[in-house]
Write a structure and sequence with these properties.
- By secondary structure, the protein is α/β, with parallel strands linked by helices.
- It has helices at about 10-15, 20-25, 35-45, 75-90, 105-115, 130-135, 140-145, 170-180, 200-215, 235-245, 255-265, 285, 300-315; strands spanning about 65-70, 95-100, 120-125, 150-155, 165, 190-195, 225, 245-250, 275-280, 295, 325, 330.
- The protein is elongated and about 80 Å long.
- α1 packs across α2 (about 20-25), α4 packs across α13 and α10 crosses α11 (about 255-265).
């Protein structure tokens, strides 16, 4: 317990009292007996407890503001999620404050501290790459322990008990791989990111499951794991040249379009020689040449769902029975695959 920063929950557990009692005792509330207050305050002092800014929530004073933290603004997907959040929240009389973590753990924590200092009623967020890599979720735990409603979307963790909204990434990759297999493709390359990304990990599983269901062997040399958003065209070119695939599945549209460019430079025709599918039905996919068949993540619907879940939580003040809503992916067939 003492290795990590001590929280109200730790003190309550050690002393056998409720979190509410600890909170009131540390604020010197007259509702708590003198003996209990002294015992709690002495314990807090001994273990150097300091209330985090995140904990300073004006929970009972509604601000009608929602804090949204997204990892980046490059991905079309996140902009559609924000649009969905704004559409629903504004209709319910809530304002939306959007912050960018820029894939940084530190920036994510700073954004949370800034927003939770009494300026919002709850959070909607997708985890940064830095947070997923570090596996450090203490800033999220402090928020939920203080009763500040939190909804995680897309990139989530089982470490945090809160409402979540995700797309069925395993199914999305399965459908994409299945489509390629039904075209008669046998050498399907996967362009993905490192496994600490929950979404990429699930997409990898869907790809593998489809291959196995069609009686094919999963070959490790058919999978290229790239650092997130590291568009290394040389690495993609070396990989695709080494295996000469007849199809490519990409966990995002950016890798997929770079892969398509590499193959076209080799003189291959898309989709006659090689089919390509990418995740995220964004502007890049629509305007690529040829246009990219995509797995639609329905970001706007995800945003609306997250906003509804958060506002219901804020207005009911219910702190239990957390739900995970799963949105079904769909294939948007375009010119980069056969029979589109």
């Amino acid at each position: 317990m003492l290795r990590q920063k001590i929280t109200l929950k730790h003190i309550a557990k050690e002393l056998g009292v409720s979190i509410s009692t600890v909170s009131k005792a540390l604020k010197n509330s007259e509702e708590i007996s003198r003996d209990t207050k002294e015992r709690i305050q002495a314990f807090a002092k001994l273990y150097n407890y300091k209330p985090n800014n995140i904990a300073i929530s004006l929970k009972n004073k509604r601000t009608k503001n929602i804090g949204v933290i997204i990892p980046d603004i490059v991905h079309h997907f996140f902009t559609t999620v924000v649009r969905g959040i704004e559409n629903y929240a504004n209709a319910q009389g809530y304002n939306v404050i959007v912050c960018l973590s820029d894939e940084s753990f530190d920036k994510e924590v700073i954004n949370m501290e800034m927003l939770a200092n009494g300026s919002i009623d709850g959070f909607i967020m997708s985890l940064s790459a830095g947070t997923e890599k570090k596996k450090d979720f203490n800033h999220l735990k402090e928020v939920t322990e203080q009763g500040i409603p939190l909804v995680l979307f897309d990139r989530v963790t089982n470490e945090i008990h809160c409402d979540k909204v995700v797309i069925d990434d395993i199914l999305g990759a399965y459908l994409a791989t299945e489509k390629l297999l039904k075209e008669g493709r046998k050498k399907i390359a996967l362009l993905t990111t490192e496994d600490f990304f929950s979404v990429s990990r699930n997409r990898n599983l869907g790809y593998e499951k489809a291959l196995l269901d069609f009686g094919l062997v999963v070959k490790k040399n058919y999978v290229l794991r790239l650092p997130f958003m590291d568009i290394d065209e040389d690495k993609i070119a070396d990989f695709l040249n080494s295996i000469a695939p007849d199809a490519v599945l990409s966990v995002n549209e950016i890798f997929g379009i770079y892969g398509m460019r590499v193959l076209q430079r080799k003189g291959l025709k898309v989709p006659e020689d090689v089919s390509i599918i990418g995740f995220t039905d964004g502007l890049l996919a629509k305007h690529a040449n040829p246009s990219l068949t995509s797995i639609a993540q329905h970001g706007e619907k995800m945003g609306e769902t997250a906003a509804r879940m958060l506002i219901e939580r804020v207005e009911s003040e219910d702190e239990g029975h957390y739900r995970t809503e799963i949105i079904q992916p769909t294939i948007i067939a375009r010119e980069s695959t056969l029979n589109s």
